[in-house]
Amino acid sequence: MTRWERSLLRLLIVFVQLVGILILVQCAFNTERVYEVNNWDEKDETVDDVIKDVIKLDTVKRVDDWPYGIKFAVWNVVDIPKSFDEGWLQTIEKLIEPGCNIVDIGANTGDTPLVLAVAAKGGTVVAFEMGTAIDMLRVNKRLNAHLKIDIHHYAVSNTTGTVHYENNKKNIFGDSSGTEEITSNTSSQYEVSSVRLYPFLLEYYGKEFVDNICMVKIDTEGHDAVILSDMDPRFRPRVLWVEWFLRFMFYDWDNLVLEDEDECTPGSKSLFDIPQSLGYQVFNPYFPLRKAPGCQTKHYITDLLLLKNEFVKTIGNKLDNEPEIHLKWERLGI
């Protein structure tokens, strides 16, 4: 073998080794993504088997039976009871098309993505949860394998990287159920990777899936306006469901001093101004369908329903005279 042939052989060996390394890296990357969505071994197991397994966990208080064949594991950390909100389901079903995909930002232990998955009627719910509720969310996905729910342990924000969050134990109900909020305090012991919504969805799921997203629900303890502000111009689902953060009612939260009832706090104002700039109209989240009167404290309600201008034009006044539908926690900030 000539010197030239030996050199060519060495180059070929190096090339084969590099290709092998790239394949291994890609496999590891794909495995990590599959784990992020499922987080347990794929195996044939009955619902009863899963319940027996789940009920042994220290974090599970009990497993409740909900409508539509849903099993809901109750987290023993949270004092506020959770139940299936039939009124919310009925409201959503009047606004979306069966088979579309839905995004749930702030999925908590799973009570909201389970309702959304029923409403989607075969569509996929993309559930983001940044906090400690993530493990219970995975448990409730496992209990309900008949529903299409993907889980992502990320914070959604206007930057990609790492964000810090704090567990806030303070609320007006005097119980121990804290909320987790993104903070600028970098000394916080809690941190999680953050993603920007549209780029992440496009890279992970592809354009066809993203184009079929009909609704985004956001409940991020005051971070909703940041997420709305970062919405890509190419991404305009017909329905946005956002939290009107309870704290936005207060002039002085630390001392629980309410803002004047005829005034808008900056946080409340942003939830009305930003949607308008994005091409949405703000409605009360129940039927008959009515515009939200304004951001003043006296008009506070738990959630706001944002409908795309073009969608509002297509429905006209068809939903104005629907029978009344109300949400379970309509007037409470929980």
What can you see in these coordinates?
With 334 residues, the chain is an alpha/beta fold. It contains ten helices and 15 strands. The strands form four sheets. It has a seven-stranded mixed sheet with strand order 5-4-3-10-11-15-14, sandwiched between helices. Strands 6-9-7-8 form a four-stranded mixed sheet. Strands 1-2 form a two-stranded antiparallel sheet. A hairpin with a 3-residue loop joins strand 1 (60-66) and strand 2. The longest helix has 35 residues, at 3-37.
Descriptive tags:
334 residues; 15 strands; 7-stranded mixed beta sheet; 4-stranded mixed beta sheet; alpha/beta; 33% helix
Category from helices, strands and their pairing: alpha/beta
Overall geometric form:
globular
Radius of gyration using CA atoms only = 23 Å
Strand tally: 15
Strand content: 15-25%
Question: Which spans have pLDDT < 50 for at least 5 consecutive residues?
Answer: 18-42, 172-178
- Counting DSSP H or I runs of 4 or more residues, the number of helices is 10
Whole-number mean pLDDT: 83
Main pleated sheet: 7 strands, mixed
Distance between the termini: 77 Å
Order of helices and strands: HHEEHEHEHEEEEEHHEHEEEHEEH
Helix content: 25-40%
Task: Give the strand order, joined by hyphens, for the main sheet.
Answer: 5-4-3-10-11-15-14
